[in-house]
């Protein structure tokens, strides 16, 4: 069943894309069966960054295993940590103080912005435009600096702990975030001029990679991949956690189902994130930033599942505990795993260049898939 | 492909030291000029497996620009690259791929192990069945960078260290 | 439907279901032989419409395996957890990849890491590990003195 590179009996060409290739998604190995330049079948081979995280977590305590999830989907590292902290808190049945909730949501939305910015730069680079890459990283550096002042790290910040957050906000945080919001709003208009309105970009994205709503649900796609086909699946709206239930924001869906629809969903999501940050930045309640918890956490016997909305889709943490200090079994339901399974369905009949555009709009992060 | 540790020198883990040719003591003027030219135009290979790849991309972007130091074009093919920056964890399935890429590069070639995972397995050292505990089990490494992930300034420091190493005559 | 209505509906659907108490969502435990019929009815049953399978987990309890399927419906927004107990010596269960397409990858992962065989799966082979890998890594009795360094 494993097709090596070469020519099949029917005269189709089999080529390898990856695992080392210039798209910045990670190590994904695709075995593509081509008829001329038209794709007949795409088969992903995974496991080139399988770091046995689930096995490793069975020997780490409940405070320790959270750092590993930062490294799974490293572009939404805060949101991953948030999901784990929520699951542990569900097991311990503790309430976190309101200040910690608001800080968590602020950090989540900033992370979502940073992730979408990098997605935009990398996707434009895949399609052939090199300039947006530098624009995106310039904006991302501002967010990284804001995070570094408060959390201490730029990329994998282990800031969310069971009970709240690890340290209080830096005094400069509010001022810098307000400056950033004003600066970035204007930039979004610039992005539209640079890329969205471009004739070449539109003709590469429109009509490419159609995913119907029934297929999206059947393949388990979540996040902007499914919302681009009209499926309403935002965890922040359906099963609100922290303070999302009290905020005014819209769930962005589109009806096209093609690459351009998914692109527009993410651009609009950036605007919604800006509006969420604006609503919260002046209303951070005073108080404690961490609830009192024991030094060594022990979850009671049972199972706990928590879900959060990362920049890629629904991230689920499923902990099965036997009452000890380490979990018995942890399963991470990663969004990229299910989004990738729809790639074959979307890419059939298109050309090789369209495959790169489709992968760009799926926004895959391979360590998230391989765990 | 056999990727188990080849303990040819009889020394225990961590890693073996490969002696570089020449000793670096006697260099002629021509060698100096050639080394200076080589060090100022190292082209990296696009090779990032996990989180460190994002910090490598930040180093390539506008704020911490690495093309000031000569790393102007990041080549996608190993045939045209001089230095491979191993950014990310190497797992058992990826090790033969890394070895093949290293073999395809033309001499003189250099390797930078970026981040804790490429140096020694990093946070994935204990209780993992699939992680290679350090990229130097697969290919010889010139410069190690600590950090998880290292800051872009740390990576720039590593690149400059590599440049100095080349100028001193190590191949 | 809320939890009680779902429970009543499931009792009419299944032969002798046992429900787990105290869980957050309705959890039903069935045997492996009835999984295929139950899955089809859950997918297309009137008022059930569980069209979104979002998590497939395999758990090794040392004496037996358990497969856990988390289901929800995008139409009615209710949740269900199905648990199936498997024999440890020969863990076999019918595939559901023709009902929910996402199960194709999830079942390959469960096969790769635990050794659970899914009968009827179109392409059951290892997903993460190399094809020549011996052993099922996530089982509790997995020993690997070459690669694993124990803390």
Count of discrete alpha- or pi-helical segments spanning 4 or more residues of chain B: 5
How many E strands of chain B?
Answer: 4
Outline type of chain A: globular
Largest interface: A-C, 37 and 35 residues
> What is the radius of gyration of chain B computed over CA atoms, rounded to a whole number of angstroms?
16 Å
Q: What would the average pLDDT of chain B be, to the nearest integer?
A: 84
Distance between the termini of chain A: 24 Å
Side by side, the strands of the main sheet of chain A go 1-2-3-4
Measured by DSSP, the beta-strand proportion of chain B falls in 5-15%
Q: Could you say which overall geometry of chain B the principal axes of the C-alpha atoms support? A: globular
What is the string of helix and strand elements of chain B?
Answer: HEHEHEHEH
Strand content of chain A: 5-15%
Characterize the structure shown:
- The complex is a heterotrimer of chains A (371), B (171) and C (151).
- Helices cover 47% and strands 13% of the residues of chain A.
- Chain A has 371 residues and is of the alpha+beta class.
- In chain A, the strands form three sheets. Chain A has a four-stranded antiparallel beta sheet with strand order 1-2-3-4. A three-stranded antiparallel beta sheet of chain A has the order 7-8-9. In chain A, strands 5-6 form a two-stranded antiparallel ribbon.
- Chain B has a single domain (42-167), classed as Rossmann fold (3-Layer(aba) Sandwich), CATH 3.40.50.
- Chain B is built from five helices and four strands, in the order αβαβαβαβα.
- Chain B has a four-stranded parallel beta sheet with strand order 1-2-3-4.
- In chain B, α1 packs antiparallel against α5 (152-167) and α2 packs across α5 (152-167).
- Chain B is globular.
- In chain B, 46% of the residues are buried.
- With 151 residues, chain C is α/β, with parallel strands linked by helices.
- Chain C has one domain: NADH:ubiquinone oxidoreductase Nqo5 subunit (Beta Polymerase, domain 2, 2-Layer Sandwich).
- Helices cover 22% and strands 26% of the residues of chain C.
- Chain C has three helices and seven strands.
- Chain C has helices at 3-13, 35-44, 103-114, and strands spanning 18-19, 26-30, 52-60, 64-72, 79-87, 92-94, 117-119.
- In chain C, a hairpin with a 6-residue loop joins β4 and β5.
- Chain C starts with a helix and ends in a 32-residue tail after the last strand.
- Classes of the chains: A alpha+beta (371), B alpha/beta (171), C alpha/beta (151).
- Chain A binds chain C through residues 1-2, 46-47, 50, 52, 54-55, 59, 215, 217-220, 222, 231-233, 238, 302-305, 314, 316, 318, 320, 328-329, 331, 333, 337-338, 340-341, 345, 370, and chain C through 22-25, 51-55, 57, 59-60, 68, 70, 74, 77, 100-102, 104-106, 109, 113, 123, 125-131, 137-138, 151.
């Amino acid at each position: 069943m494993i097709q090596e590179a070469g020519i099949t009996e029917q005269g189709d060409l089999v080529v390898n894309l990856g695992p080392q290739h210039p798209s910045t998604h990670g190590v994904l190995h695709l075995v593509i069966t081509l008829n001329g330049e038209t794709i007949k079948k795409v088969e992903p081979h995974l496991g080139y960054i399988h770091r046995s995280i689930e096995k490793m977590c069975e020997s780490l305590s409940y405070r320790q295993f959270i750092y590993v999830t930062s490294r799974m989907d490293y572009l939404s590292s805060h949101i991953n940590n948030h999901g784990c902290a929520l699951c542990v808190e569900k097991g311990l049945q503790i309430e976190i103080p309101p200040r910690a909730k608001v800080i968590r949501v602020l950090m989540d939305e900033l992370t979502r912005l940073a992730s979408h910015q990098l997605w935009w730069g990398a996707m434009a680079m895949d399609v052939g435009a090199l300039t947006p890459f530098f624009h995106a990283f310039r904006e991302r550096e501002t967010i990284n600096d804001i995070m570094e002042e408060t959390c201490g790290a730029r990329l994998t910040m282990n800031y969310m702990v069971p009970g709240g957050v690890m340290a209080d906000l830096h005094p400069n945080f509010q001022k810098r975030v307000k400056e950033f919001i004003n600066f970035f709003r204007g930039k979004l208009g610039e992005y539209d001029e640079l890329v969205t309105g471009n004739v070449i970009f539109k003709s590469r994205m429109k009509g490419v990679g159609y995913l119907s709503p029934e297929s999206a649900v059947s393949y388990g796609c979540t996040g902007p991949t499914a919302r681009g086909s009209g499926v309403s699946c935002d965890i922040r709206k359906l099963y609100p956690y922290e303070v999302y239930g009290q905020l005014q924001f819209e769930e962005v869906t589109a009806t096209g189902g093609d690459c351009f629809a998914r692109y527009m969903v993410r651009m609009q999501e950036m605007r919604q994130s800006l509006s969420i940050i604006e609503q919260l930045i002046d209303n951070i309640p005073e108080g404690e930033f961490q609830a009192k918890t024991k030094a060594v956490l022990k979850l009671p016997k049972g199972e706990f599942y928590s879900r959060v909305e990362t920049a890629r889709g629904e991230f689920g943490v499923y902990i099965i505990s036997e009452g000890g200090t380490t979990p018995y079994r942890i399963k991470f339901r990663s969004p990229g795993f299910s989004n990738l399974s729809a790639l074959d369905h979307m890419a059939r009949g298109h050309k090789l260049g369209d495959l790169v555009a489709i992968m760009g709009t799926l926004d895959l992060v391979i360590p998230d898939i391989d765990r | 492909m056999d990727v188990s540790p080849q303990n040819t020198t009889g020394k225990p883990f961590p890693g073996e030291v490969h002696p570089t040719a020449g000793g670096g003591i006697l260099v002629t003027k021509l060698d100096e000029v050639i080394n200076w030219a080589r060090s100022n135009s190292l082209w990296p290979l696009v090779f990032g497996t996990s989180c460190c790849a994002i910090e490598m991309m930040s180093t390539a972007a506008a704020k911490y620009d690495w093309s000031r130091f000569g790393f102007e074009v990041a080549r996608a093919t190993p045939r045209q690259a001089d230095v491979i920056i191993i950014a990310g964890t190497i797992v058992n399935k990826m090790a033969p791929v890394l070895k093949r890429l290293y073999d395809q590069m033309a001499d003189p070639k250099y390797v930078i192990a970026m981040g804790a995972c490429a140096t020694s397995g990093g946070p994935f050292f204990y209780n993992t069945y699939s992680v290679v505990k350090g990229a130097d089990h697969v290919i010889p490494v010139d410069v190690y960078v600590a950090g998880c992930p290292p800051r872009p300034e740390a990576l720039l420091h590593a690149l400059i260290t590599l440049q100095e190493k080349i100028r001193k005559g190590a191949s | 439907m809320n939890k009680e209505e779902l429970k009543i509906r499931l009792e009419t659907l299944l032969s002798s279901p046992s429900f787990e108490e105290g869980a957050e969502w309705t959890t039903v435990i069935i045997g492996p032989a009835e999984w295929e019929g139950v899955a089809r009815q859950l997918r297309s049953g009137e008022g059930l419409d569980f069209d979104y399978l979002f998590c497939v987990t395999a758990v090794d309890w040392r004496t037996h395996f358990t497969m856990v399927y988390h289901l929800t419906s995008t139409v009615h927004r209710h949740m269900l957890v199905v648990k199936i107990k498997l024999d440890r010596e020969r863990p076999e269960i019918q595939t559901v990849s023709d009902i929910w397409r996402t199960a194709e990858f999830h079942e390959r992962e469960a096969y790769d890491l635990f050794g659970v065989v899914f009968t009827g799966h179109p392409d059951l082979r290892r997903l993460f590990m190399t094809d020549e890998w011996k052993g099922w890594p996530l089982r509790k009795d997995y020993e690997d003195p070459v690669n694993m360094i124990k803390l």
